[in-house]
């Protein structure tokens, strides 16, 4: 596995490239141009700038997360043609600096959804928390305001310019069914996968987080059956998934190691993290350690190892520990600990096989 680390960019992240470089076995950054409005083509000059910054530390920029998909594409509106063209342009420009994987998602309106970004755990650390009853009771607009009040940095997937139009967006999704979303995703994929293929870039869709409908909006990248259907939409190795153990794993019916075993050759990028699920449907993000959460991370890593996984991996989110001031879920310390746990399992698997590969 090839270890990478998400970095939000110069002046937009509390973690530095110098620090990332010092995490054992970490070879590259997972990045994006977070200030380019969704739907616009990314400027080549800005892309090159990130490449130069990473080069200085010997880190690569092979993985981009995310090139976000405009809502008009998800809704199947006429303007999608223009946004799809812009998306293709971004793919071509990213290929010019050697990008190999683009992670994206197809969740209507919201990306990940949580009710508390600083839930205190028993050991005094804090983490992202999802309280089912609260989501069912709260008005989504109120939730967005609450989240925005608690964050000084813009959060990926919660771009202010998009969320400002929240009411109109909700209105646009009235009557949009899961089948409509499937159709619009298929249309998008038919258009972009040939371009990705021609440019040597693997598209890797991120599952829905959490993997069920929130606020009455349709969600489709939620379970094994749907991922099968999704991969069958276009039969190409350039159409794959970002298998996120924490997102899919919030539903106990999703057996992550089995999913890894089934889909391994279509997973160019893996997100590995743990969550602890409660009986009432709430869940909280935990350390990576198998015993701390509901997902057997040891078995997840073993499943990748068994399949000679050579794709990119990142620790997804981390807790906030040791009083680190950081973006919710994206501190240095707990994610670095997560990396060491993943390497520990991986290296032990290697030893078992009598090998020393990385
Ligand atoms: C990520 C997602 O920070 C996170 O929760 O896992 O925002 C992810 O980057 C997007 O869904 C990918 O498009
Ligand atoms: Mn993820």
UniProtKB/TrEMBL annotation:
Report the InterPro entries cross-referenced here: Man_deHydtase (IPR004628), Xyl_isomerase-like_sf (IPR036237)
EC number per UniProt: 4.2.1.8
Pathway annotation from the record: Carbohydrate metabolism; pentose and glucuronate interconversion
Q: Which UniProt keywords apply?
A: Iron, Lyase, Manganese
- What Gene Ontology terms describe what this protein does at the molecular function level? ferrous iron binding; manganese ion binding; mannonate dehydratase activity
Q: Looking at the keywords, is Manganese present?
A: yes
Which GO BP terms apply? D-glucuronate catabolic process
Q: What class of enzyme is it?
A: lyase
Q: Which domain of life is it from?
A: Bacteria
Identify the cofactor(s): Fe(2+); Mn(2+)
Is Ribonucleoprotein tagged as a keyword?
no
Q: Which reaction does it catalyse?
A: D-mannonate = 2-dehydro-3-deoxy-D-gluconate + H2O
Q: Which family does it belong to?
A: Belongs to the mannonate dehydratase family.
HAMAP family xref list: UxuA
Q: Outline what the protein does.
A: Catalyzes the dehydration of D-mannonate.
Task: Tell me what this protein is called.
Answer: Mannonate dehydratase
Protein source organism: Desmospora activa DSM 45169
Q: What is the lineage of its organism?
A: Bacteria, Bacillati, Bacillota, Bacilli, Bacillales
């Amino acid at each position: 596995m090839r270890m990478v680390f998400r970095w939000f960019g110069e002046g937009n992240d509390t973690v530095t490239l110098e620090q990332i470089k010092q995490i054992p076995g970490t070879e590259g950054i997972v990045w994006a141009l977070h200030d380019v409005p969704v739907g616009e083509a990314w400027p080549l000059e800005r892309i090159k700038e990130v490449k130069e910054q990473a080069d200085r530390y010997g880190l690569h920029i092979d993985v981009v997360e995310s090139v976000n998909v405009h809502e008009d594409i998800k809704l199947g509106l006429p303007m999608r043609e223009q946004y799809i063209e812009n998306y293709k342009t971004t793919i071509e420009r990213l290929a010019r600096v050697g990008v190999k994987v683009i992670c994206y998602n197809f969740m209507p309106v919201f990306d990940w959804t949580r009710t508390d970004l600083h839930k205190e755990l028993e050991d005094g650390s804090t983490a992202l928390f999802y309280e089912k009853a609260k989501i069912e009771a709260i008005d989504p607009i109120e939730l967005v305001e609450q989240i925005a009040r608690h964050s000084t940095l813009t959060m990926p997937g919660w771009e202010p310019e998009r969320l400002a139009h929240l009411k109109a967006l909700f209105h646009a999704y009235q009557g949009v069914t899961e089948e409509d979303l499937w159709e619009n995703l298929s249309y998008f994929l038919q258009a972009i996968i040939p371009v990705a293929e021609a440019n040597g870039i693997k598209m890797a869709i991120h599952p829905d987080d959490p993997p069920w409908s929130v606020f009455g909006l349709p969600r489709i990248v939620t379970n094994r059956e749907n991922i099968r259907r999704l991969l069958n939409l276009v039969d190409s190795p350039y159409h794959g998934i970002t298998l996120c153990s924490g997102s899919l794993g919030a539903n106990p019916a999703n057996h992550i190691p089995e999913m890894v075993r089934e889909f391994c050759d279509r997973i160019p990028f893996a997100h590995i993290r743990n969550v602890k699920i409660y009986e009432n449907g709430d869940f909280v993000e935990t350390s990576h350690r198998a015993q701390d959460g509901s997902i057997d991370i040891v078995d997840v890593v073993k499943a990748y190892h068994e399949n000679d996984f050579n794709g990119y991996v990142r620790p997804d989110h981390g807790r906030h520990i040791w009083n680190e001031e950081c973006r919710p879920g994206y501190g240095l310390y707990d994610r670095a600990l997560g990396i060491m746990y993943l390497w520990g399992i991986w290296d032990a698997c290697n030893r078992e096989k009598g090998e020393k590969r990385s």
